[in-house]
Amino acid sequence: MNRRNALIARIGVAAVVAAVLALLPAGVSGAAPTLTWTTVDVPGAVSTEVIGINDLGALAGFYVDAGGLAQGFLDRSGTFTTFDDSAGALGTYVFWITDLGSFGGTYYDAEGVAHGFVDRNGTVATINDPYAGTANGQGTFAEWESNLGEIVGYYIDGAGVWHGFVDRGGDFTTFNAPSAGTGSGQGTFFGCINDVGVITGTVLGSPNYSFEERAGSYTTIADPSQSVPGDTYIGCDNDLGLAVGSYFVGLTAYGFAELNGTYTTLSDPNAGLAAYQGTTVESDNIFGQAVGFYVSSTGATNGLELSY
Question: What are phi and psi of 128, to 5 degrees?
């Protein structure tokens, strides 16, 4: 599963400076931050995507090996640890790592059914929403966990409709965002939750739109540079209110940062700019780091880390 393809079927430097200065620690904001792009590739991987970063700088993501199988990984200061859920016959995808060290994501079993999972201190628990479908391409997709232990994601029911969920200690609550589609391949995608309870996600319907959800109130996120309405896909919103994600111009992806309604483009200098290329930003922490991946002009997919 490629998150970028799932969502699509589903920072001008001056603007970057303005967006991030307010987030720099006291005593540092007198100097303009420098954007530093770092490529993150799992050794020997065919492709790498970095999805999560915690406030300690540890990275989480997945890679595709030479045999075409997706496997999860953690990257702590350049030391890579592979994680392959024992039940993940058709691939394992790690999406997050919390400040407490728990991590998780989604795996596909031999029948093509998705299941969420979380690993806490070496104990792995499976996450299955009770309303999820059990046929090929259906199931439960765990996307993110806050430091408070709340897990969000989405499930695909027996009719192929997507529904957001929040899992609090095994107690599942279903969410359907306003105007979400109700046909197969439509619905609500929850992608991230921060420690102040803000959930980000995307509606797949007519049209698509991305949102931030706060206590039942939905705010639309739409980068003004998108080529058509609905071509913005939010990743995460950190605890300080800085959101990151991606928008499309045609079929080319560009990352963005959004703070208080001001949008700033993020484009990895190694990214290609043709169709199905570009930069995708997935998440950020409170210390000026963001992660994602880029597709180069050769079509290779590489993980990225951005520091400012």
Answer: -130, 115
pLDDT score for 26? 36
User: Any idea which of 69-73, 153-157, 204-208 has the lowest mean pLDDT?
Assistant: 204-208
Terminal CA-to-CA distance of the chain, rounded, Å? Answer: 30
Per-residue tokens: 135: 């046929």
pLDDT at 16: 31
What the chain holds in terms of domains, given with CATH numbers, is: 3-307 (2.120.10.30)
Looking from the CA of 136 toward its CB, the CA atoms found within 13 Å total 4
pTM: 0.90
Tokens 């931050």, located at residue = 33
Alpha carbon distance 244, 255 (integer Å): 7
- Residue 211's alpha-carbon distances to 65, 91, 192, 221, in angstroms, are 33, 29, 11, 5
Q: Which of 167, 151, 146 shows the shortest CA–CA distance to 54? A: 146
Q: Which residue bears the tokens 């079993």? A: 109
Return d(Cα 92, Cα 105) in angstroms, integer.
8
